[in-house]
Amino acid sequence: MTKTPLLHLENKTYELPFIEGTEGEKAVDVRRLRAESGYICFDQGYGNTGSCESQITYIDGDAGILRHRGYPIEQLAEQSEFVETAYLVIYGELPNAAQRRAFGDLLRTHAEVEEPLQRIFEGFPRTAPPMTILASVVAALAAHHPELAANNFEKDLAVFDTAAAMAISKTRTLGAMIYRHRKGLPFVPSKDTTFCENFLHMMFSQKEPGGPDYLAEPEVVKALNLLLLLHADHEQNCSTAAVRMVGSSSANLFASLSAGVSALSGPLHGGANTAVMEMLQQIHDAGDDGSRFIEQAKSGSKSTRLMGFGHAVYRNFDPRAKIIGAACEKVLAKLGINDPLLDIARHLEQAALRDDYFLSRKLYPNVDFYSGIIMRALGIPVSLFTVIFAMGRTTGWIANWYEVASQPKGRIYRPRQVYTGPVKRDYVPMAARPL
Questions:
Q1: What does the pLDDT read at residue 352?
Q2: Backbone phi, then psi, for 93, in 5-degree steps?
Q3: Nearest one of 284, 285, 283 to 295, comparing CA atoms
Q4: Which of 158, 270, 371, 401 could form a cystine bridge with 247, CB 3.0-4.6 A?
Q5: Is the CA virtual torsion 121, 126, 131, 132 positive or negative?
């Protein structure tokens, strides 16, 4: 039996080569189809289209598997930390002690946001959407550091280490600055502490002029570290595809990352954990433990939308949701927080695990279901949830940009379309057009 798929079109036969990934993923190579036959493949939203070959992240949605560079997410969550995982995602291997120190030093060196960039915040109202501010200032990094943003792959790859560390570290600092800008508080300088401790310090220190520094509880630091790690990368999602799309034009790293931030700002992508919190709050405000809400959702009520369940990729339990759900219980217990929304979330989760309505539709909790509750426990406002997501995902965006930039035979991303507009027609003078 032939291993080469054959496509029959208009009395002609075309051979379409196979591509197989290291984990057994199979694809049909249609790159020559249009040139040889005049046909293209139609796949609205790219839901079944492989746009690239990548060595970064592997997902098996049916089995609930997520691995970064071959390492299971469960092992990384248990034994690694965000900065080490960031290094792994970007560079392909776990760092040795010297590499880890050097990477940490680069992050500390580039944590501060320079005064000219700080002044950009003066142009934003305090009510400006946080992700809009983040996308704007990340893009502005290219203007303030042109030596790292030549829009030339060869030149930009030569300074990649510095640009990557700057993007990760400054995105973290910008997140804290956005919080303080919205509160009308002065910015707090970076501090020589761990990555997550420094973020919390810049967020919450000196609420009043001359006030005390914020000392984060170890449980808080650990929880934030886990949140960032679990969001480090997730294959070719909307924002990552946007980064690769923009990067394929030879755009610099910062411009490409800004595109990723913009894509993540959409409520169907990065805003999902915010929607979960709004849903849980509505259930609580209605005096419901989740039972009525579940029945309304099952009945097809248009006013009852179940958020945080199901995923575009996973047809099994999102492995990140299992990890973050267990962490949520521990964090709230250690901090002595009795959050009624967590009780509702537990009830909804248990319903999903035993009710045939959920099981038959493979509607399991995803990572967004519990991440908002943890962030709320850490004192992070709902308006900043997606910014925290971006802080973690910057790592994966950088790794994907690097794959695009380092391909010797790369090409600009250019999807095709099936045109459905008017056929050829002649121009009609104004006087002859119908009223």
A1: 75
A2: -140, 155
A3: 283
A4: 401
A5: negative
CB-based contact 270:390 (threshold 8 Å) = yes
Task: Tally DSSP H helices, then E strands, for the chain.
Answer: 19, 7
Chain centroid, CA 410 distance in Å:
24
Q: Which residues are within 8 A (CB) of 1 and not within 5 positions of it... i.e. 6 or more apart?
A: none
CB proximity list for 422: less than 8 A, separation 6 or greater: none
The tokens of 309 are what? 């369940």
CB neighbour burial string for 326-360, b if at least 16 within 10 angstroms, e if fewer:
ebbeebbeeeeeebebbebbbbbbebbeeeeebee
H helices within 184-232, ranges in order? 195-204, 218-230
> Given the DSSP bridges, would you call strands 26-28 and 65-68 parallel, antiparallel or unpaired?
unpaired
Residue 242 and residue 263 in contact, taking contact as beta carbons nearer than 8 Å: yes
Q: Domains of the chain, with CATH numbers?
A: 81-267+384-405 (1.10.580.10), 272-377 (1.10.230.10)
Q: 368 or 153, which is more confident? A: 153
Pick the catalytic residue from 156, 233, 318, 368.
Answer: 368
- Amino acid found at 230: L
pTM for the structure as a whole: 0.92
* CA trace torsion 147, 148, 151, 154 (10° rounding): 100
What is the residue-averaged pLDDT of the chain? 91
Instruction: Classify residue 24 as left (phi > 0), alpha (psi -120 to 50) or beta.
Output: left
Q: Which of the two residues, 323 and 210, has the higher pLDDT score?
A: 323
Catalytic-role residue among 311, 318, 339, 355: 311
Q: Are 398 and 164 in contact (CB under 8 A)?
A: yes
Q: Are 217 and 330 in contact (CB under 8 A)?
A: no
Structure tokens at 65: 């598997």
Residue 340 token pair: 């009624």
Reply yes or no on whether 339 is catalytic.
no
Kindly compute the dihedral angle of the four CA atoms of residues 308, 310, 313, 314, in this order, to the nearest 10 degrees: 110
Q: Dump pLDDT digits (tens) for 31-59.
A: 888 888 888 888 888 888 889 999 999 99
Residue count of the chain: 435
Please tell me whether residue 184 adopts helix, strand or coil conformation.
coil
Q: Give the Cα separation of 195 and 376 in Å (integer).
A: 20
Q: Return d(Cα 188, Cα 239) in angstroms, integer.
A: 30
